[in-house]
Amino acid sequence: MRGPLRRAGMLTTSVVAISLLAACASRNAPLEPLQKARAAVNTAMNDAKVVQLAPLELKSATDTLAQADTAWTKEADATEATHLSNLAVRRAQIAQNVAQTRQLDADIKQAGVNAERQRLQGDAARAQQQADQARAAAAASATAADRARQQTQAAQAQVKDLQARLNELQAQQTERGLLVTLGDVLFEFGKAELTSQAAPRLDKLAQFLTEFPNRKLLIEGYTDSVGTAAANQTLSERRAASVQSALASRGVAADRMTVRGYGKDFPVADNASPEGRAMNRRVEIVIADENGNLRSRR
């Protein structure tokens, strides 16, 4: 009997040894979901904006990854490790989208141009909605998270670009449209010819109009109350026509521009003082909004 018992004991010992070796091999073998989770969390950790703007969401992702590592390397629980790995990927994606959304909010707060603020806020709301939708989709798809990030970056670029251009134009938002005013100092004294000082502003205005080719504009000339009504009317029309000609020479299509002269009508200041008269001698350029709305005076 001693022989069979000895063989049985040896067999039991072999089975235990094989089981231990299998467990060790399982823990040492790579787990694909865990590898993907490590890559996703590392990507989020290497993004400075995520680290700065979404620290709590990023910590949630790193903590979940650590739990997945423990489940696999110490407990060899593939099911739990896979579940935690997938959860870590989703939380890393959420951290990235939260950072993008918060960055967009900060950019909008810096927009200092009253002229287009309402439109910019509308764009931001749509971008926020897209970011929210992308963040929800990121729970199931990394591809959706990438698309949301690209959309957010594009929206940020549009906001910054438009803000900069409006600042350069010194534009004001009015009920009639976007208003750019050219003062009397940009014209020869008592004449319709533009001075060389007008060139930089006209260059910037023409560039803006070229980039928004669907926007039409009104070019309106005004004078002070000095002189006869007929002379003022003629001068206001000629100055408006000079601006039209200058813009046309810079590539703005003639059929986009309507020229009018109003003489001494519609003053913006009191003609009793030299300063007030100087403010009234002007050319106003009214640009249609993004919907094409453009209101003339009469």
- Trace the largest sheet across and list its strands: 1-2-5-3-4
| Number of domain modules | 2
The general outline is: rod-shaped
Mean pLDDT score, rounded?
Answer: 85
Question: Any low-confidence stretches, pLDDT <50, length ≥5?
Answer: 4-25
Structural class comes to alpha+beta
**Distinct helical segment count:** 10
Assembly of the depicted chains:
single chain
The level of helicity is: 55-70%
- Return the string of H and E elements: HHHHHHHEEHEHEHE
User: Using only CA atoms, what is the Rg?
Assistant: 34 Å
Strand runs, count: 5
CA distance, first residue to last residue: 120 Å
Largest sheet: 5 strands, mixed
* Beta-strand content bin: 5-15%
Domain OmpA-like: 174-291
Protein name: OmpA family protein
Subcellular location: Cell outer membrane
Pfam families: DUF4398 (PF14346), OmpA (PF00691)
